[in-house]
Amino acid sequence: MIKTRFLACSIVSANLESGNDKLVNALGTLSLSHDSAGKPTASSQVHAPKAASCSSVPISAEAAILIVAMRKLREAIVASRRRDMFAKAVYFFIIRTTIMLGHPESYHPALLYLFRCIHPFNALSNEEKMEYVGYLVLDLACRQNDLASAFHVRCLYNHRSRSVDTVLSALVHRNWLKYWDATTTTSAYERRLMQWTDEMMATHAIQCLGKSYLSIQKTFLERCTGLEWKSLKDTKKMSWALDEDRDNVIIKQIKKK
Predict the structure, then answer these.
(1) What residues does 216 pair with on adjacent strands?
(2) Which end of the chain is more exposed for a tag (fewer CB within 10 A), N or C?
(3) pLDDT tens digit string along 115-145?
(4) Tens digit of pLDDT for each residue in 147-203?
(5) What phi and psi values does residue 7 have, to the nearest 5 degrees?
(6) What pTM was computed for the model?
(7) Closest of 204, 194, 202 to residue 143, by C-alpha
(8) Which residues lie closer than 8 Å to 144 by C-beta, 6 or more apart?
(9) b/e code 224-237 from CB counts within 10 Å (16+ = b)
């Protein structure tokens, strides 16, 4: 236990002062294995949904060690009831790291504790609040598919972010073009949270396109689904065919009389 907590403290102390880009690059070196992405006051309450989806992606052994170390560090801070700057910085690091690792069992309770127990006693700055409320809103909307709770948290903290609002609008209207365009303006952490709805938006786009067109440009199809043609054929098992001469995807063949 001492060794694990020492590892967590070493990781935190080495990265607390580093920027977001440095943390993202450091996490990129981890080998993630994919199969195929106190009682709170009334003013500090954050809605916690009754049932949350926890379908995390498989992770490697080294990432699992990191997650366990951060969990033990988080437990120590909760047990000691620390709400100082160190506790806040540790929670920032844990939330960002586990978001990039795709581990909601770590970042979701950390977000709730940050706003319920730390923020009322050691208030986050406006920039910090906008960043981490945005993560909570996107987690509710994308991973848990709970748009009502996402808008509730957004209004509770008066959150205003163009990138987050664009994602919410795209999800409400099932606007796949706006959704995929939003991926170019979001941060790495926001994009990682959006990946929970990538498959749903791609499937919805395919269904709509299949009912509306006989054929479609391959580039437009890839823009609508966020996937390349080869990936679409492999993952969606579609019967659509590619006309390589015209670079068109044939959705339905016209029956000759």
Answers:
(1) 249
(2) C
(3) 999 999 999 999 999 999 999 999 999 999 9
(4) 999 999 999 999 999 999 999 999 999 998 899 999 889 999 999 999 999 999 999
(5) -60, -45
(6) 0.77
(7) 194
(8) 49, 52, 53
(9) bbbbebeebbeeee
Question: Is residue 256 very low, low, confident or very high in pLDDT (cuts 50, 70, 90)?
Answer: confident
Answer whether 184's CB lies under 8 Å from 190's CB. Answer: no
The residue among 197, 195, 13, 178 whose CA lies nearest residue 89 is 13
First-to-last alpha carbon distance for the chain, in angstroms, is 76
CA–CA distance from 248 to each of 47, 163, 180, 201, 213 (Å)? 47, 32, 21, 22, 12
The H or E element spanning position 216 is strand 215-217
Q: Which two tokens stand for residue 215?
A: 């054929």
Residue type, 135: Y
Q: For residue 169, which amino acid is it?
A: S
